[in-house]
Amino acid sequence: MSSLSDKVAMRHMDVYMEQEEKYTEAVMSGTERLQSKLQSEMASRLAFELSTPPLRWGPWLYYRRIEEGKQYPVLCRRLASLNEEFISHKSPSAGFDFTSGKRIEQKLLDYNLEAERFGGYAYEELSEVSPDHRFLAYTMYDKDNDYFKLSVRNLNSGSLCSKPQAERVSNLAWAKDGQALLYVLTDNNKRPYRIYCSMIGSTDEDVLLLEESDDNVHVNIRHTKDFRFVTVNTFSITSSKVFVINAADPLSGMTLVWECEGLSHCIVEHHQGCLYLFTDAAKQGQSVDYHYLLRSPVDASSSPRKWENVFSDDQDLIIEDVDFSDTHLVLITREGRKFRICSISLPLPVRKGAVHLKELNPYFLPLPEHVSQISPGPNYDYYSSTMRFTISSPVMPDAVVDYDLLNRKWNIIQQQNFLHERTRILYGTASAASIVESNSNSKNSNYKNNVLVDDHHMWNELSEFYACEYYDVFSYDGVVVPLTIVYSRKNKKENQHPGLLHVHGAYGELLDKRWRRVEVVGVKSGIMMADVQGSRILFKIISPVRNSLLRKGSSKITSLLVGDIVLVDFWLLQP
Fold first, then answer.
1. H or E, element range at 542
2. Where does residue 522 fall: left (phi above 0), alpha (psi -120 to 50 degrees), or beta otherwise?
3. Which range, of 49-63, 151-165, 426-440, averages the lowest pLDDT?
4. HEC profile for 151-217?
5. Which residues, in sequence order, are bridge partners of residue 482?
6. Which of 178, 173, 126, 116 is nearest to 147 (CA)?
7. Nearest to 402 by CA among 415, 392, 414, 387
8. CA distance 223 to 240
9. What's this model's pTM, rounded to 2 decimal places?
């Protein structure tokens, strides 16, 4: 298929999949009754309507939900101030339900209808609501042509705008308080290279703002969180540049604010007259393997622009990500294996030079034990004091958590619902009578700075049944490698022969250590799950302990071998 064009290849794939489906139907024809029974049983265990946790932006709550019997979700919103007075409704898409006496949520975009527009397939890459909440710009994949098509929908009328309707769109950003939309087009090789500006409601042709002629340079745009600027990134393997466009006047031109050698990650934000740059660009010609934060006044007149470090270098503290609101700077940090979230009041003090993080009196938000990953949510609302994060752990299902930065309260908004009674009986040793569930997930942290909350029931953890332990082991070439091991507590055996685990993995791969229901079933059955992560060696181990175990138990050295991990005089899981 490599010699065929993309369009022909896609058609061949469609024909092949159709033949595969017909074959499957023929082979499984004798199991229709069993399939129906299994489907009914699974359906009875699922909610009729699945929904993402509502996200507040301005006066609205935005969310996506899947209606019963439908394949694709529906993007909806309802007024936050009247949330309890709204209901979900299949039809109409807005209005009032006289039976229940409640308002009907507003359906902004039904992806099932979009699938009809795009040949039965609906895949959205980009979706941006305008800052005035009047328009929705989004791109849908056209599989027949193998590109993403831009559409803009009027959220008041529900109708599509006549323009812009562009093809091969890779990026978009709102400007001029929702009156203008900037978007990026790709060439035939899918390289982003042109930026256009379209005035919503205008019949004028879209204006070309930039065309990058160098085939090695790619273009990317985004708006700052406060919608004051649109940032333009141009980058190649040899250089990276960042320009800013005044969002109030997108046709006024671009200003260069950052330039460096090599390919680097550069995100620019704005807060009260200062530009902030989060980057991993080389320092003094030396490449770095971490990100750092810089700032510079918007009205800086020097050329080139001078940037100053916000934080002094700390080898033990890694800044994984940053987010801004009108009142706080929020950092996701990592010290060794320990992940944290801290908030710092804004604006930052006006002082010369970088400071240590502790000098800014950071407040560390409460977290469970054994956090393996923290992912920031969309957090569109710049003026909100609430920020959303997804907290991941090897011994806890992912938790979507809202933190209120002003009153320091937190609330678990969404988490996989197979915990507590049923889970503790199935996966643990506790009886149903011994389980006492909390009435509410909403907690006042009462949090002492620099101390993590350690309440397993509060966080719906299952660490009472599954242990998560950390070790530093030496590879065959002397590199110290951090090792994370998860195992079932009831299968732990003390003072037994060492176990031999076979290692599977790849170099340079970032492994996912989040909770996995399938893997946990294996752990309960006596399978050890481990993760080896280092600068040179990166493995994931999910393997039962073999019967052919090492017989010598005198050595107390834990060593990492090529292809195997030997745990000596530690513990042994029963297969």
1. strand 538-544
2. alpha
3. 426-440
4. EEEECCCCCECCCCCCECEEEEEEEHHHCEEEEEEECCCCCEEEEEEEECCCCCCCEEEEECCCCCC
5. 472
6. 126
7. 387
8. 18
9. 0.77
